[in-house]
Amino acid sequence: MSYKIGIPRALLYYEYYPLWKEFFTELGAEIVLSSNTNKSILNAGVSSCVDEACLPVKVFHGHVEELKNKVDYLFIPKFISVYKKEYLCPKLLGLPEMVINSIDNLPPVIDVEINLLKSDDNLHKSVIEIGKIFTSDNKKIKSAFDKAISRFNEYRKLLANGVIPIEAIKVYNKYVNSITTLKNSKYKILVLGHSYNLYDEFLSMKLIEKLQKENMKVITPDIVDIGKINHYISKLPKRMFWSFGRKIVGASFYLIEEKAVDGIIYISSFGCGLDSVLIDLVSRKAKKYKVPFTLVTIDEHSGEAGVNTRLEAFIDMIIWRDRNEDYISTHG
What we know:
single chain, alpha/beta, 4-stranded parallel sheet, Dehydratase_Activator_Redct, FldB/FldC_alpha/beta, CoA_activase_DUF2229
């Protein structure tokens, strides 16, 4: 029997989907994705989730609502740590429990713990635990995961070559055969934020696509070499123990200090405690090196018209500074 495994198209989908898809497919499962985020998914999430949760968590609940009657299992792992001495966002630690206690009539939830702080064997044990749903053959489970890692590394190579994740996933899923590259793109814009804010085109209101239509080359933290990220984040007086924070700050410090970008846009969901720290670090560095910086805050009430106006003004300012008056303030 082939089980249908539901994967919500939200949160860590934008980090690990190629890995998950390959693993479950190798075990004979059928992957069922929720739709791209839309207004009805957002409304369903807002209705089923607690008011205090941030927008990405509310949206995740909406994706679960859409999937719950279509699948045999929901895949909602408890991500605690994916690197030694580092943690992920607190909302990811309690995500399975939040969903299970907020939404009725759910199918069984695969909520294994991923925690590399405990031991190197934790990931192996979690993989075996998931695989036991489909087969009792540990060798088959290990083989499926090894193949998934291999395919995931191919996906990561696309990122290393400058392909942002939303485009890389399209290639991975064979939606497109090649990447469209911009010709004669003079300006480079660093778009920062958590992957689930950057690459969800409903939440970000297609900000990346709009920049590309203006012939701006978009750079995100995911395409920056991890060695450079680790080197530049080490300049902080204390170790940053948030994995996403290290990636965002390390990538931005490298690109700012190397004068590799013409402007920075940070997309943040309202009420994100982690972002309140990261935004301050990045904006201070940008101000020191006179790199234009703007913050776009999103929540369930955000309107596209306001974001478009901000974006147009930001692009105009970058072009004006380059052509006319380089001394114009980057921060108002």
